[in-house]
Amino acid sequence: MDDIGANRPKTRIQRRNTEAILEAALEVFSSNGFRGSTLDQIARAAGLSKPNLLYYFPSKEAIHSELLNGLLDVWLDPLRAIDPAGEPRDEIMTYVRRKLEMSREMPRESRLFANEVLQGAPRITDVLSGGLKSLVDEKAAVIRDWIEAGRLARIDPYHLIFSIWAMTQHYADFEVQVRAILGPEHDAFAEAEVFLDRLFDRLLSPDP
Amino acid sequence: MDDIGANRPKTRIQRRNTEAILEAALEVFSSNGFRGSTLDQIARAAGLSKPNLLYYFPSKEAIHSELLNGLLDVWLDPLRAIDPAGEPRDEIMTYVRRKLEMSREMPRESRLFANEVLQGAPRITDVLSGGLKSLVDEKAAVIRDWIEAGRLARIDPYHLIFSIWAMTQHYADFEVQVRAILGPEHDAFAEAEVFLDRLFDRLLSPDP
DNA sequence: CATCGGCCTGACCATCCGGTCAGAAAAAGA
DNA sequence: TCTTTTTCTGACCGGATGGTCAGGCCGATG
């Protein structure tokens, strides 16, 4: 009886260990990529033995997959939260801020996805062109309607969303580069918030 | 006499093969990362045998390093080309367009760097905080002067540069995601050019 | 056309890595 | 306490992978 993944962890030990494994795996996968990470690294980081990892998860793939799918929901929450009934610019600015906050609070998760997508998203193509696409389509339609109503500047909703992703995730994914250039004394995220506020404010104001 | 890297390739065969190796390595490294790529893959892609690779390069690391350093110059050319004597908005818009064009024409190079930086830039930290930092500092100073002269909106030069990097490279590095959402019929890069033109035009116009 | 030096290869090696397994240790239950 | 179930481990396996080496090939030069 190997497979524990099917029925959710019940005992205290199971919950504690699966959690430790996923935490360790996030740390290791996000900074080395899937292929660049080893079970030994994860085991060491989790304070467990390698065979014990494989007692809780059937394979390295399974750990990675569990992480990725478990995080996708959280990751897309801010986008889901865009409210068609809200004030357009507030909604989008809130989205930007929440996304930037996630980059600051969850850089490892950001890098995990970045690694995956960079390498062709072999393990989540179905999610990208399935759930993600339809969510983005939905929100793009909302933005389009706002534009039609003259409440936002005329800009492409899809590329607006891409630009938000690009700029917010940049501060997590390329943190080393940002820090190398700004130096350690700067609070990159605080500065980014000011900058992005200004940028999107200017971008979204309706034409006169 | 193993090391050929020291003195530049002389014979026709050397030039042809080192070129084939670097081309193949770019293809393989950029889509699998350093750790995810094997010498066999590179050898196959280059049409050579594995020992023959190691006749031209002393190690896998050496191939990767050669690629990375060789490309850094090309990669930063557009930034270098920003002319303090030029018209500020033209200079920056030209930079954006050239950077986007590079993402379209050299997506593999973009992904190679992205992979490296994502994983903490272990092999190019010195370049980041050395040459790159000083180049960015220099150009940021130029932009600051333009702002002081009232020829650009008051925005942080460093984060302006980050935003250009983020948005242009996004279309290369996350191409799979972009394509999954837009579908194959869209020309993402053409749309991006229009979008970024508008975005930076609005961002940079001096306040009244 | 001979020969010499640059070019190339098959076979091999040591190590790493994901994964297995028999059974020990520990916890839970009776 | 005794038994059963869960948790854990050392030893091991097979395949992949980076790298080596002795020697064969082959093209340029005299």
Biggest contact: A-B, 52 and 51 residues
Give the number of helices of chain A.
10
Radius of gyration of chain A from the CA trace?
20 Å
Helix content of chain A: over 70%
Tell me how many strands of chain A there are: 0
Distance between the termini of chain A: 68 Å
The ordered string of helix (H) and strand (E) elements of chain A is HHHHHHHHHH
Shape of chain A: elongated
Percentage of residues in strands of chain A: under 5%
Tell me about the largest β-sheet of chain A. Answer: none
Low-confidence segments of chain A, given as residue ranges, are none
As an assembly, this protein is homodimer
Structural class of chain A: mainly alpha
Give the averaged pLDDT of chain A, no decimals. Answer: 95
Characterization of the model:
The structure is a homodimer of 208-residue chains. Chain A has 208 residues and is an all-alpha fold. Helices cover 74% and strands 0% of the residues of chain A. Chain A contains 10 helices and no strands. Chain A has helices spanning 12-32, 39-46, 50-56, 60-80, 88-105, 107-118, 125-148, 157-173, 175-182, 188-204. In chain A, α1 crosses α6 and α5 runs parallel beside α8 (157-173). The relative contact order of chain A is 0.10. The mean pLDDT of chain A is 95. At the A-B interface, α6, α7, α8, α9 and α10 of A face α6, α7, α8, α9 and α10 of B. The first copy, chain A, binds a DNA duplex (30 and 30 nucleotides) through α1 and α3.
